[in-house]
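## retry 2 of 3
previous attempt timed out at serialization; input unchanged, resubmitting
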Amino acid sequence: MLDALLDNVPLQIMLVGALVGIASSLVGTFLVLRGTSMLSDAIGHSIVFGIVVVWLLTHQQSGPLQILGAALTGVLTVFLTELLVRTRRVKEDAAIGLVFPVLFSIGVLLLNLYARDVHIDTHTVLLGEIGFVWLDTVTLGDYRIPQSLLSMGAMTLLNGAFVTLFYKELKLATFDEALAKALGLAPGLLFYVLLLLTSGTAVAAFDAVGAVLFVAFVIVPPATAYLLTDRLWLMFLYGMAVSIASSVSGYTLAVVWNVSIGGMMAVMTGVFLLLAFLAGPRYGIVAQWLRRRGQHRLNEIRTLAVHLYNHEASPEQSEENVTRALREHLHWDDTKAQRVVERSCERHLIVRAGESLRLLPAGRELAREILEPGGRGEPRSVSETLG
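## retry succeeded, writing output
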């Protein structure tokens, strides 16, 4: 099986993309829920500073020290951002916009001053090229394995282990930070560890998809999952599924159209987000429209039931509980009146005999529930009932 993987370049590329997406969505889910997802953009840019500083100190272009240095830079970015926010002079979004361009600019200047002949450049860090991951390999035993596959696999396992071990604590700190503090869970420390892992994931990913595309994987799959479910554990599953589907479909379309593979993968995350926005079962535009339409039709049926109930067994029943009276009292045209009557008949709420309309027991009970909620109090008017 390993031989088949190492001989299959497209599979390696899709697998690296999927691992980047899974590792990113694991930490990105909490960033999206906390409303701090744009910190990933700040981290994605500012890690250039950390990468250059580590190279200047150690002359290592990759490895654990690079990941650690860039991760610490991400934490520094958040620390400086919070420091500015605490001054109450700027808001958080403005603070992010002030901090990461400074660190990114310093990193670029250091690259140009001290690392002109070293294969560390802003294009590589920001954009990457996932199509070439199979060229950069390391030897393990008798096999040469893509370095990105190993680094992203390690980050995926690390992020997954962190989320699994501290799932309850992270959940509580995300949704009720005050209670988490009261219980002594140190939500601030958990958040910084989360950002440390986010920074490490960004560094591990920049060779493959680049920091900019990494941001798409951090934000879009969790945001898509958020439109599909209210359950946290399902958000993780949906985010992973979107990441895998985006990697596979992105690679396929990039080959067909001869465009950037990483860019197409990021585009596909946006496509899945759009699909969830339009056709999501609960929050999608189509689902909301269908619910509003269904509620509107239900209100029409309720209005008819209340009208018939109010005039039932009264001297005016023969004049009021007929189809033509709906035009005068409810201001319905003939088409609407016929439509509501037919739907009410289909639900076995009323029965029609020519022009005459009569409530069935189910329709009478529906009207009573509206006019006499809980069996207490005076009947309410239709306008009060429909609010």
